[in-house]
Amino acid sequence: MKGGAIRHLDVDLCLGAGTRPLGRLALHRGRVLFEYDAAFLAAPLPVSPAKLPVAPGTHAAPHAPFEGLFGLFADSLPDGWGRLLVDREADRVGVGRHALTPLDRLALVGASGPGAVAYRPAAGRYPSGMLELAALAAQARRVERGDAGEVFAEILALGGSSGGARPKALVSYRPSDGAATAGEAPGFVPAIVKFGREADGVDAGALEFAYAQVARAAGIEVSDCWLAGVGRARPGWFVTRRFDRLPRVHVHTLAGLLHADPRVPSLDYRDYLGVVRWLTRDQAAVDQAWLRAAFNVLAHNRDDHARNFAFVLDAGGAWRLSPAYDLTFSRGPGGEHWTTTCGEGRRPAADHLRQLGRDAGVAEAIVARGLDAVRTALSGWPAIARAAGARPATIRQIASVINP
Question: For the chain, what is the mean pLDDT?
């Protein structure tokens, strides 16, 4: 790892089983520049239509909010846990985290990041063979406590391109027996394993698993998920299937698409639903996006920042909503939602959701059915959470706050 060593990166788009050149990134006088590949210009896809539309010439990225990157590429970079790992490694080897340029960080991601965008030459490493999740959890705990140690390399390779605050690893997972391996293998699915922070409590995985079940019962699309390590690290680690693999698809977050800073409350659900309509041109997608807003409000999921909403582009150039993710109980920044509902962040309620539906053209009947569906699903919270292994005190605390 050498800070400032990367001056150019070739960028590929890996859709399905095919890979095609997307363009080239360059660092020039402190600015990140990008140019689309000539072949991509001849057969374009709208990979980032709001801030980096496909056009010839050199495009200079703005300095903010992504440290000099276009949102298309900032979506490849980890935040939270993944960035912590890379920063710790840079400090450990004497480079210093502040010496790493955006291109250095993208090279470390290589082809292992979310979605279909990949970078060459890749500077990252990836292990092979079977993995012991309990050992990875122990490594993650040591890193969280500030001890990089000799076990750092494996957790860096498996978690250094992952986003979100909680310690995690990108693996292949076999649901039938809870086995995990690095790389693809028959019977295994690409997955994210979340180990949880000490501050989250031992049942963080159980809570996210239970929230996923409740969301699905309310009619929200979520990826398949499991609890791993139950009995060894009871109540277990949350494991979710990666929706960006098998086949590999292009994923763009709302933050990256709009250049909305995910570190500050910057959007309203009106903005989100407006983007859904503009990007997908599908009223059913708008209806589903409204339902997700209703779930977040009524289930008290206030970790609804702009990076926690995403879109998927298929090989034919059509956009759709990604499955919902990062759904769990959260008090939010200062007790408010990251994303407001018709201007209300602290106490959004059903009336705000009804107004949101009217503003977005969601039929009143769909709004009424959606509110009933979320409330009915939330009424099953105690039983679902108990079955997942959440602690009784946590179940009671959340039940006293959510709005069934």
Answer: 92
